[in-house]
Specification:
With 356 residues, this protein is mostly helical. Helix content is 60%, strand content 5%. It contains 17 helices and six strands. The chain binds iron/sulfur cluster (2 copies).
């Protein structure tokens, strides 16, 4: 197992992992904490909503944002939209979030991963704790790193092929209206609320792996990250180094969580770049490392953060105002299903059942 100890720039590296603010990157912490706060409120609301459904009580708010945790369903809704022109209102928030994430990927690389994604935040916390424990970053040797890097693309290809090639428009339409899909958010809640020993062990092993190898889940397994990585080389923004100004101090490479040799490149086009801007913030010079755009103007990390905030949260606000956020599934249907139970394999299999 290879080790990456950042001897070139221990102060900067330690500052990052101790959470000290560096040149506007407190914005990234703020962005991650905002997501965490929103998700916490959503989790409490959703638990209360399901509790009221179970007990047949009125009230409760179903936070539509929970659909963001149904990426496969969102991909299916995306194909349905492309194929039929119809924007499915079964889980519209999931589709809106997918579109916004893809939009940020095209404009701002994988910034979603490092500025918004809660799993990215969890991975970063684990990486920080590991650094406090071991004082070094562990990087897998190339012969193991490269094959593992391909895993998330294989998972993505599997899902993309299943949805975009194998499923006919009719099968897509039927899937969207299945009872299974209509309560997928509630089933997901029960999955975590009543987690099985096998699932708990799986989550624990992934957390342990992400502790030992920084960003293990994000770097090797996350299909959402793979999808955004596809946009990497085509994204409108990129990290650009000016060799004439650069002093080859290596500080940018030393802090890169994706182990990219920033100090050896002119443009960082790697699909593994998560747009965290740690490299730009760590560069001691003003013009050696910048966030470049095709229009030749440069973005500061602060402007990058504002653009991401406006795109993502503004997009959600527009979806809410224009009626593309709340599901059209009536509350009485959800109550009926929850009280009847969601365990019937006939009614809640992927391609069976129907609501009467
Ligand atoms: S190249 Fe820069 S922006 Fe990209 S992951 Fe590395 S540190 Fe973050
Ligand atoms: S781009 Fe900046 S941080 Fe990176 S090697 Fe050059 S001077 Fe150092």
């Amino acid at each position: 197992m290879g080790m990456f100890s950042n001897k070139k720039n221990p102060d900067r590296f330690n500052n990052i992992f101790k959470g000290k603010p560096v040149k506007g990157l407190t914005l990234r912490r703020g962005s991650q904490l905002l997501t965490l706060a929103v998700l916490t409120i959503m989790g409490i609301q959703f638990a209360d909503f399901i509790n009221k459904l179970e007990q047949g009580l009125p009230g409760g708010v179903r936070p539509a944002g929970v659909e963001g945790f149904l990426p496969i369903g969102a991909l299916i809704s995306l194909k349905h939209w492309f194929a039929s022109g119809e924007f499915s209102m079964v889980h519209p928030a999931g589709l809106v979030i997918l579109i916004l994430v893809l939009g940020t990927g095209f404009l701002l690389r994988k910034a979603f991963c490092s500025w918004i994604c809660p799993v990215g935040l969890l991975s970063e916390v684990l990486a920080r704790v590991a650094h406090l424990t071991f004082k070094i970053r562990i990087k897998l040797p190339r012969w193991l790193d490269w094959p593992l890097l391909s895993l998330k693309y294989i998972i993505l290809i599997f899902f993309a092929h299943s949805i975009f090639i194998q499923m006919s428009p009719q099968a897509i339409r039927e899937f969207i209206e299945l009872p299974y899909n209509r309560v997928a958010d509630i089933k997901m809640f029960y999955f975590f609320a009543h987690i099985t020993p096998f699932a708990a062990w799986t989550v624990a092993i992934l957390a342990l792996l992400s502790y030992l190898v920084p960003y293990f889940w994000c770097r090797y397994l996350c299909p959402y990250g793979a999808l955004l990585g596809v946009f990497g080389p085509f994204s409108l923004t990129r990290i650009k180094r000016t060799p004439e100004s650069c002093t080859d101090c290596g500080k940018c490479s030393a802090v890169c969580p994706s182990f990219i040799s920033v100090d050896k490149k002119i443009n960082v086009l790697s699909p593994e770049c998560i747009g965290c801007m740690e490299c730009v913030a760590s560069c001691p010079l003003d013009d050696a490392l910048v966030i470049a755009t095709p229009a030749k103007f440069k973005l500061t990390p602060r402007a990058f953060a504002i653009a991401l905030f406006v795109l993502f949260w503004g997009g959600i606000g527009i979806a809410q105002m224009t009626g593309y956020w709340q599901s059209n599934i009536p509350r009485h249907e959800l109550q009926h299903r929850v009280q009847k139970g969601l365990d019937d394999p006939v009614e809640y299999g992927h391609f069976r059942g129907g609501y009467e």
